[in-house]
Amino acid sequence: PAPAPSPAVGALGALVSAVRRGLGTEQSNGARLRAATLLVRESEADSAATRAEVDEEYGALLDANPGNAMAAKRLATLMRSAGDVKGALEVMERMVAGGRGANECGCWLEWGEMYAEVGEWGGAAFCLEEFVLLAPLDPDGHARLGECYATASASAGDGGQLALLRRARKHLSHALNLMGDAAGRAAPGATRRRIRRRTSRALLSMASVSSAFLDSETGGAEEQEAKICRALLEFACGELLEMCEGGEFSKTMGACIKDYVEDKMKVTDLL
Amino acid sequence: MTPTHDLLVLDPSIRDWVVIPLLLIIAISGLVRPALQAVLKGVAPPPTESEILAFDAEARARHVVARAHRTRIVGGHGILCEDAYVGRKTYYIGGGGAAGTEGGGKGLLLSADISAPAAPSDPMAMMMGGGAMSGMKGQAAFMIQNMVMMNGIQHFFQGFVLLKIPFPLTNGFKPMFHRGLNLTTLDTSYVSSLSWYFVVSFGLRGFYRLYMSGWGREYVSDGMFKSLQMGIGQGGGPQFNAGQLYKMEADNFEMTRFRPLVDDAEKKLLGKKYPQKNISVRWDMCGQGGRRAVCHIR
């Protein structure tokens, strides 16, 4: 069941209704007032029928003005939350094709997540590349892009798989470089430790990607690439173990890393 | 004759009846000016369908140019891998091959569909239309108000020395602070009434910008300079030419050289632990008794 709307929403709804009553019919049908009314109705929507009406109204706003970015974003969000991700993707595509949202980081990030939800990793990678172009110094963007390439490689052919894994390695390396630079600039202490902890996800991804590269048939045969992957695997695993050293999580991390390094390098070098 | 450094005693009544009222009048007139400009400009007529379509086309073209520019600048500096950058470059300017083939065709920026907007058929009508005239009406409010204020201050407060700046100033500031006063020996720190008007009206621009940030920048921009620059035949600014911008961006793409950054990220991350390539050199005999070096990389 949908949670009850907060008192602030009720007050906003009353205000919007009062404004509509005060204005004439023509002005109360203006796009901004209709959008404000729809925002209030969204939070009050307690049934599928009401939610469908709200979707329809947003669609009507978009038909009247295809460049209405606010209506497009709300409609895409509502469709996505209702499970219609493909519909949401179409709305996003129309919005960006119409020249709206192409310079917004959040737009590309959401769009990439939608593509990932439906398993279209090529589209997700494209959207994350656009996000990275907008925010080149954001390490999380590079890390996500690397993970997306790695996931896309699983369904690619042999030649394509290696190319995608190579891209994944590079972007994860760049993300770790950016995080390392941030940790180096931070004062020693809690801030630096907090920044270093953010790297754990990227390090695990790096270990996974390097391991997958070595496991592939042709990847293991290229000597130089194999050496690089082993070095990256050793680096990632070493950093992870150092991060968890002495804590309760260290045994779990040790077991996890053993899976990555098994048959690829001497386990005793790390553990 | 010695300069009058501390020989002036200003009557406190000047502060009560001139300085503070002038400050209030100037501040209030600055706050009222945008409303007056809005009344004079009037309500703009609703845009026609062709204007809406033209506006949308322009918005789309601007976004394409912005994305291409970002791809070239940021992507060209190696934020993307080289093959990802080359793929985007091919999308924008084509690969030089036959159209329809992979990597061929002209690309988005050079495709024939993009054309420059048509020149206005009647430039006089464009200039005398709503855009230019409403701008002139808005500037008229600013000019009239300025003239009334300056003439009023010169008429009522001519010759007044209002206040003393608490720090010494060089003689270069005399024309700025001694407007309306012809006293060569007066210390530069003293401020006349007309100078006070200019100092306050320019000094309060930041306050107006904060206070009226929701009204739109055109109401708090420097109307005086705009009115000086405005002349006959000057319309709303250069027209947006999508075709020209596309061509310029395509040419810049051709000239941009890719610099690897992400491609070299592994080297930076691993540092000394980055595995070096083993290079061996073998000397081979070639014709006429010479020899050449052949490098093998392992």
Give the topology, please:
The complex is a heterodimer of chains A (271) and B (298).
Chain A: H1 7-22, H2 25-28, H3 31-44, H4 48-64, H5 69-81, H6 85-97, H7 105-118, H8 121-134, H9 139-153, H10 158-185, H11 190-215, H12 223-244, H13 250-261
Helix pairs in contact in A: 1-3, 3-4, 4-5, 5-6, 6-7, 7-8, 8-9, 9-10, 9-11, 10-11, 11-12, 12-13
Chain B: H1 12-41, H2 49-79, H3 82-93, H4 123-128, H5 130-157, E1 161-164, H6 174-177, E2 190-192, H7 193-203, H8 205-211, H9 223-229, H10 242-255, H11 265-270, E3 279-285, E4 291-297
Antiparallel strand pairs in B: 1-2, 3-4
Describe this structure in words.
The complex is a heterodimer of chains A (271) and B (298). Helix content of chain A is 77%, strand content 0%. With 271 residues, chain A is mainly alpha-helical. In chain A, α5 packs antiparallel against α6, α6 packs antiparallel against α7 and α9 runs parallel beside α11. The longest helix of chain A has 28 residues. The radius of gyration of chain A is 24 Å and the shape is elongated. By secondary structure, chain B is mainly α. A two-stranded antiparallel sheet of chain B has the order 1-2. A two-stranded antiparallel sheet of chain B has the order 3-4. Chains A and B meet through α8, α10 and α12 of A and α2 and α11 of B.
In short:
Chain A is an all-alpha fold and 271 residues long.
How would you describe this structure in keywords?
heterodimer, A: 271 residues, 13 helices, 0% strand, B: 298 residues, two-stranded antiparallel ribbon, 11 helices
